């Protein structure tokens, strides 16, 4: 890739390498084949003490938090925040495609400090040097049913992840953790259990929907960035669903259609709490909730889902 070549143009040029990759287990977690095949550099990734990690189960509000963090770090300077698409501004640690597309690690090793890094890895697969370096991490969690619905639509449009199949089939796969990055239940629980052992700020999507200003304050305090209230309000406005939906640097519209097929679904789809009610039948909800009670037994982690 030349320095001047736009990253999404580059992806377009190498569009023949992209396809719906099968899942392969990495330490028991299903990940897309190119990630599994290039796992060593991810596992041995060298963290730096001033790295900030944004970790989520896919579709929990990752992009939303990335945009907020970048707006905080640029102190609400919209021109700076629109310097590049969100996946270029904040690289995705474990993402891999077949060569010559650079991996997340390729991009990060050359990135200047301080780096902000996106990941969906479950806690136990996070490269250990992040903990050795006492890095800060923001974890965003979203209630299971909305997370599932969002993932179902995303897997229709994301042509590098396995086809989700029918709604009924997908529901089963999600409950069994047979989707990329594995079990939602294990993911959210483990970070919850570990949050006080490390510098982890645990944030709920539903809280961001309810009172975004309060959550922006929590994030900026965690990052130890001092901002006047008018800048906080500017960030809250810029990170609203309506504004981000129309921001090509935050809504993934620059990603080529061989990767994200926008005719199937769009990235900024609905951005709501409780959308699951439009998809679960009463019987599906009952079965899901009964299974949820079992899987989430004994945890103090609770979600709002409406
Ligand atoms: P929906 O599919 O329910 O609309 P991720 O970034 O982890 O892939 O998550 C994507 C989900 O977050 C999508 O959910 C998307 O619409 C939602 N989202 C992104 N930005 C948002 C915002 N500013 N406000 C509310 N939801 C947002």
Automatic annotation (TrEMBL):
This is Sulfotransferase. Keywords: Cytoplasm, Transferase. It is an enzyme of class 2 (transferase). Belongs to the sulfotransferase 1 family. The lineage of its organism: Eukaryota, Metazoa, Chordata, Craniata, Vertebrata. GO terms for cellular component: cytoplasm. Residues 49-299 form the Sulfotransferase domain. GO terms for molecular function: sulfotransferase activity. It comes from Python bivittatus. It is found in: Cytoplasm. Its main location: cytoplasm. SUPFAM superfamilies: P-loop containing nucleoside triphosphate hydrolases. Its EC number is 2.8.2.-.
């Amino acid at each position: 890739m030349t320095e001047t070549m736009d990253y999404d143009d580059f992806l377009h040029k190498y569009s023949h390498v992209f396809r719906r990759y099968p899942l392969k287990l990495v330490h028991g977690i299903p990940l897309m084949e190119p990630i599994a095949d290039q796992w060593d550099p991810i596992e041995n990734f060298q963290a730096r003490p001033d790295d900030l990690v944004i970790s989520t189960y896919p579709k929990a509000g990752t992009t939303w938090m990335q945009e907020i963090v970048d707006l905080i770090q640029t102190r609400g300077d919209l021109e700076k925040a629109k310097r590049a698409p969100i996946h270029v501004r904040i690289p995705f640690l474990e993402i891999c495609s077949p060569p010559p597309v650079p991996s997340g690690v390729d991009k990060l090793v050359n990135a200047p400090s301080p780096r902000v890094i996106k990941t969906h890895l479950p806690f136990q697969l996070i490269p250990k040097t992040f903990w050795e370096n006492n890095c800060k991490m923001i974890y965003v969690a979203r209630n299971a049913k909305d997370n599932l619905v969002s993932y179902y639509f995303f897997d229709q449009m994301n042509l590098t992840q396995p086809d989700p199949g029918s709604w009924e089939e997908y529901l089963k796969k999600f409950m069994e953790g047979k989707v990329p990055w594995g079990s939602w239940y294990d993911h959210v629980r483990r970070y919850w259990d570990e949050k006080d052992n490390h510098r982890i700020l645990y944030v709920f999507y539903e809280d961001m929907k309810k009172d975004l200003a309060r959550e922006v304050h929590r994030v900026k305090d965690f990052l130890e960035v001092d901002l006047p209230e008018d800048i906080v309000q500017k960030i809250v406005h810029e990170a609203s669903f309506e504004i981000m939906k129309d921001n090509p640097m935050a809504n993934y519209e620059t990603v080529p259609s061989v990767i994200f097929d926008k005719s199937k679904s769009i990235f900024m789809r609905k951005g709501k709490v409780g959308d699951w009610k439009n998809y679960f039948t009463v019987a599906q909800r009952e079965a899901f909730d009964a299974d949820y009670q079992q899987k989430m037994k004994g945890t103090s982690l609770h979600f709002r889902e409406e």
